Amino acid sequence: MAFINVVGDRQLSYTSLLQPGVLPPVIGSFTFNTLNTISFDVGAIVPNTAKQLNVTVNIDCGYAGVASKFNVWLWTELDNGQQDVKFKQGSRYPQNAISNDSETFSFAYSSKSPKLFLKSDYDQNQNLSINLFAVGYAQ
Length: 139
Known about the structure:
mainly beta; Jelly Rolls; six-stranded antiparallel beta sheet; four-stranded antiparallel beta sheet; 0% helix
């Protein structure tokens, strides 16, 4: 366990969910088939005492025929109604290959809303997907 200095003297203990050779817990996948907000339950993955959730966002894209950009918003909601929002933008372009992008985000977390939310402005579901993995939490 490591300690993360959050604000002033307040520290949280961090728990990694990563082990060599073992996939981290899967939160869910999204295949760009709707413009609606999607929610993923993470309450079974992190304890209710968690204050922060770390998520690796992996985007796979391939065999695109038409060039276009896509945007993705991911967020958690806190007790007071605030949202901790993260943003990713990607590009699709004509290719005969597969591209991959992976990034880890830290979200503020509340067990009163144990969900990770996702919304995109692209719904063509053409060889494009996101996989979400829980890689750690702090409490």
